[in-house]
């Protein structure tokens, strides 16, 4: 469960987000909006990467201002550019890197890594250099590196923006089957079309909130 | 095994510093070549370790030649190249994660002075990771310059490179926080 109460974010003397009060119990939540509408800041609020200037954000019952580190262990975050998330030289090593702070035995780490890479079709690339993967494979690797930690909530900031149609569809299929609560920021309206709820932000304010069809219709009108 | 390799690297570099004649360095070069052969490293992979320092080695040789003499230039340049080759052999034959785990174990006593070995090994990991990323960024900056018809300019190259590197550092820091690796 995610709860925002009177949330505002002010950066460089500009209200990036203003007056957001929301409760988000649905499993798949989409966030749409123009460039600069505050979508990415909204996503960052949900795992404490950004903190509200006013109001409170509570995730899984914890206040992001007080318990950001604990929240980050339970809320996975996927960025637009996978290159910024890949740290280790090879695919398997990068996934294993996520588990380093867990102090698990080597065999258990190897089994978890193999399982997640197999699940998302990257097992054959386990020993390949991570930075030589295609854009779609890199995004899948970034997703594996997050999912290996088995987060309760997954927040994604434009996960398909840099992908071609085939890879976007693959990511969409994967998202459909994930058991976690998802919050996905995206310009890809097809991706959000079958979500449970869609929020539309404009100049830091919530201007539409509801089922995908009317909310995305409102977004299209805004962009017209 | 990895700890032994790292100790061997430290010992090898110390010996290279102690060798003072071109003949002795030639002997050391033969030993390094033999080590590459024993490790069955392909010539292309071996050259890949030295290639990035070729212009630096040339500049070092010329500078030493101008400031000292031919034997001194030969000794200094061979010493640096052989050290890089030895370090390259260790990285070629050891997965980064294994090397970092060994480093973390080796640095464990630093906990006594409140230094987190994980953070030190993470810093080294990020240093290794930044090499292909910066190479790629530099290539893209050069391509963008060529596309706009800009001839070689240090400022036009350095400014976007530094800005890009700083942006990447910011994004990487945020990604590490998001992966829970900052607490």
TrEMBL record, chain A:
Q: Cross-referenced SMART domains, in alphabetical order? A: AAA
Give the superkingdom in one word. Bacteria
EC nos: 3.6.3.-
This protein's GO CC annotations:
ATP-binding cassette (ABC) transporter complex
InterPro entries, alphabetized = AAA+_ATPase, ABC_transporter-like_ATP-bd, ABC_transporter-like_CS, ABC_transpr_CbiO/EcfA_su, ECF_ABC_transporter_ATP-bd, P-loop_NTPase
Is the keyword Zinc-finger assigned to this protein?
A: no
Q: Name one GO molecular function term.
A: ATPase-coupled transmembrane transporter activity
Q: Which Pfam families match?
A: ABC_tran (PF00005)
Q: Which UniProt keywords apply?
A: ATP-binding, Hydrolase, Nucleotide-binding, Transport
ABC transporter domain sequence ranges: 2-224
What is the enzyme's class at the highest EC level? hydrolase
CDD domains named in the record: ABC_cobalt_CbiO_domain1
Keyword Transport listed? The answer is yes
* Family the entry assigns: Belongs to the ABC transporter superfamily.
The protein's name in its UniProt record: Biotin transport system ATP-binding protein
What species is this protein from? Nonomuraea endophytica
UniProtKB/TrEMBL annotation, chain B:
Record Pfam families: CbiQ
Subcellular location, record wording: Membrane
The keyword Cell membrane is assigned to this record: no
Keywords assigned by UniProt? Membrane, Transmembrane, Transmembrane helix
Give the record's membrane topology.
Multi-pass membrane protein
What parts of the sequence cross the membrane?
52-68, 80-103
Gene Ontology CC: one annotated term? plasma membrane
What PANTHER family does this protein's entry cite? PROTEIN ABCI12, CHLOROPLASTIC (PTHR33514)
What protein name is recorded for this chain?
Biotin transport system permease protein
């Amino acid at each position: 469960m995610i709860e925002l109460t009177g949330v505002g974010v002010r950066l460089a003397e500009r209200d990036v987000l203003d007056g957001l009060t929301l409760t988000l119990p649905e499993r798949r939540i989409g966030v749409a909006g123009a460039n600069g509408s505050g979508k990415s800041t909204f996503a960052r609020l949900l795992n404490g990467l950004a903190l509200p200037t006013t109001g409170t954000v509570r995730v899984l019952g914890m206040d992001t201002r007080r318990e950001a580190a604990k929240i980050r262990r339970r809320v996975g975050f996927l960025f637009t550019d996978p290159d910024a998330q890949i740290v280790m030289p090879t695919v398997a090593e990068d996934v294993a890197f996520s588990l380093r702070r867990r102090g698990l035995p080597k065999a258990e780490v190897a089994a978890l890594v193999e399982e997640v890479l197999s699940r998302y079709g990257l097992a054959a690339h386990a020993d390949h250099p991570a930075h030589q993967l295609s854009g779609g494979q890199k995004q899948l690797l970034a997703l594996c590196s997050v999912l290996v930690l088995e987060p309760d909530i997954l927040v994604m900031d434009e996960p398909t923006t840099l992908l071609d149609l085939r890879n976007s569809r693959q990511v969409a299929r994967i998202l459909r089957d994930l058991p976690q609560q998802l919050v996905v920021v995206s310009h890809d309206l097809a991706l959000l079309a079958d979500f449970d709820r869609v929020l539309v932000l404009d100049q830091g304010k919530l201007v539409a909130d509801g089922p995908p069809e009317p909310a995305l219709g409102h977004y299209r009108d805004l962009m017209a | 095994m990895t700890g032994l390799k790292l100790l061997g690297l430290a010992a090898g570099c110390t010996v290279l510093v102690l060798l003072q004649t071109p003949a002795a360095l030639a002997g050391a070069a033969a030993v390094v070549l033999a080590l590459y052969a024993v490790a069955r490293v392909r010539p292309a992979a071996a050259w890949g370790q030295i290639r990035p320092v070729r212009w630096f080695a040339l500049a070092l040789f010329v500078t030493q030649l101008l400031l000292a003499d031919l034997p001194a230039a030969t000794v200094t340049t061979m010493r640096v190249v052989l050290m890089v080759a030895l370090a390259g052999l260790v990285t070629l034959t050891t997965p980064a994660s294994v090397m970092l785990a060994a480093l973390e174990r080796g640095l464990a006593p630093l906990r006594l002075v409140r230094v987190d070995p994980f953070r030190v090994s993470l810093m080294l990991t990020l240093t290794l990771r930044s090499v292909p990323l910066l190479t790629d960024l530099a290539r893209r900056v050069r391509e963008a310059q060529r596309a706009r018809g800009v001839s070689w300019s240090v400022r036009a190259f350095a400014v976007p490179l530094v800005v890009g590197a700083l942006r990447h550092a910011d994004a990487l820091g945020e990604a590490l926080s998001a992966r829970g690796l900052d607490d």
